[in-house]
Specification:
Blueprint: H1 6-9, E1 18-21, H2 29-37, E2 45-49, E3 69-73, H3 78-85, E4 90-91, H4 99-105, E5 112-117, E6 125-127, H5 135-141, E7 144-150, E8 157-158, E9 161-163, E10 169-173, H6 187-197, E11 205-208, H7 212-220, E12 228-229, E13 233-234, H8 236-243, E14 259-261, E15 263-264, H9 268-274, E16 280-282, H10 285-288, H11 291-294, E17 300-304, E18 308-310, E19 315-316, E20 319-320, E21 323-324, H12 331-340, E22 345-349, E23 361-362, E24 380-383, E25 386-389, H13 395-405, H14 411-422, H15 424-427
Parallel strand pairs: 1-2, 1-5, 2-3, 3-4, 5-7, 7-10, 8-16, 11-12, 11-17, 13-15, 14-16, 17-22, 18-23, 22-24
Antiparallel strand pairs: 6-9, 18-19, 20-21, 24-25
Length: 430
């Protein structure tokens, strides 16, 4: 292994290069900081990054570096959100499962990949650890690979391995991945979790997101049996079900007996559980999120969230009006693949109101909002007030169903809007 310092490794970067930086809770912080220290020397360096979970902004997102680095986020997160909204960076909208193909096709050029890897095993292979997702596609296309060889990154099985001979420059470190702490679900989240869990049968294959509501759903599944896991993100909640034997993957068709994910984010205890655990594999997100792979598992239960849902069932999950908040991510991939699965069910789970008291079941999406899941795909929508199924309903019936799970104080206004929009077809339902 060619060990060097982070600053020495950055001498491999030149103006005009295109760099992919590994994400999840496993951002190569030392490499990012060293790159920023070269900011005054570089120009027009393009940076690609996926979902990046941290409590501090990226060091290259500073006004003095506006001509040095162009951030092209592939999933906008806190560490770059302000920079993008000030107009210095931007986001490339794309289904998460299709982004590795954009790298491999050359549509998104990648010259250099920054990784945060585990120590090598006895055969000289380092694991990408808790972030295989987009990194595998980027590394396949990179001429130069710069890696933190990190004692604190768990070694995980699967395809996300790189031999030490393929690493151009290695920086030895012991830099623990970011710990994402989730408190106990609040009463609203608990109610939503129960509403969703009641519709999930024993033997289902789960895809579930990250946050308070997904955590509540997982807690509500504690009485289920023989669940499987084929997901994009692994969290403490799924690890808890694995430890209890509730997730045993015994009825899956794709990689039976194995929990499959593309990234992981959570506690130190979770990372320790995943380290050298042969019951868990990390795969390229182009594979985990392929609807034709997802559909092969029976009884898929795909559980995702939203920022707002309109009365026809259109789901916005990436923006608040014009304000880009995150990205499409894998929601579409699993909503489509899950619907194709034999016995599959897909869920949009959200509180009826925001923390500021604004209704999340809306007459119309906020102007500028993006549609992540179309009304033609939406199946179940759950709030703390219940759960409704939309697939077999016309527009008026959908409106009535969604109003029934909206916040009670919002229902009168929503009914007026539905009357104006759908006329007698809605009135005759009352």
């Amino acid at each position: 292994m060619n060990y060097t310092s982070a600053d020495e490794a950055m001498k491999l970067v030149h103006s005009g290069d295109h760099i992919y930086i590994q994400g999840s809770t496993s951002i190569p912080e030392l490499l990012q900081a060293a790159l920023a220290r070269r900011g005054n020397e570089l120009r027009d360096v393009v940076i690609y990054s996926g979902c990046s979970i941290t409590d501090k902004e990226a060091p290259f997102c500073k006004p003095e570096f506006k001509d040095s680095f162009l951030v092209n986020s592939l999933f906008l997160s806190y560490n770059q959100r302000r920079w993008v909204h000030e107009g210095y960076g931007s986001e490339i909208p794309a289904f998460l499962g299709e982004i590795p193909g954009l790298f491999r096709s050359g549509l998104l050029k990648v010259d250099i990949a920054f990784l945060n890897c585990s120590l090598p095993d006895e055969n000289g292979y380092c694991s990408y650890g808790i972030s295989a997702d987009l990194a595998m596609g980027a590394v396949d296309c990179s001429k130069i690979i710069i890696a933190q060889i990190n004692k604190s990154i768990p070694y995980m099985y699967g395809d996300a391995l790189i031999h030490e001979s393929k690493i151009t420059a290695a920086v030895e470190c012991d830099d623990p991945p970011f710990v994402m702490k989730l408190g106990a679900p609040n009463p609203i989240e608990q109610a939503i979790g129960r509403n969703v869990a009641d519709k999930i049968h024993d033997g289902a294959t789960l895809q579930i997101g990250v946050g308070g509501i997904p955590n509540a759903v997982l807690q509500a599944l504690s009485g289920h049996k023989h669940l499987g896991l084929h997901t994009e993100a692994m969290t403490d909640g799924v690890v808890g079900l694995m430890k209890k034997g509730i997730i045993d993957n015994s009825l899956k068709k794709v990689m039976p007996g194995i929990s499959v994910g593309s990234l992981a984010m959570g506690s130190k205890e979770m990372y320790e559980f995943l380290n050298y655990n042969k019951q868990v594999v990390m795969k390229d997100v182009a594979w985990t999120n392929d609807p034709q792979i997802i559909r092969q598992n029976p009884n898929v239960a795909a559980i995702n969230s939203a920022l707002e849902v309109d009365l026809t069932g259109q789901v916005c999950a990436d923006s608040i009006g014009d304000y880009i908040f995150s990205s499409v991510g894998g929601q579409h991939d699993f909503m489509y693949g899950g619907a194709l699965s034999p016995g599959g069910k897909t869920f949009i789970a959200l509180p009826s109101r925001t923390g500021n008291g604004h209704g999340k079941i809306t007459a119309h999406l906020t102007p500028g909002a993006g549609v992540v899941t179309t009304r033609f795909q939406t199946q179940y929508v759950a709030t703390e007030y219940g759960i409704v199924y939309l697939r077999d309903k016309n527009y008026a019936q959908r409106a009535k169903a969604l109003i029934s799970v909206a916040h009670p104080d919002d229902r009168e206004a929503l009914e007026r809007a539905a009357c104006e929009r759908f006329g007698y077809s809605f009135l005759r339902l009352k």
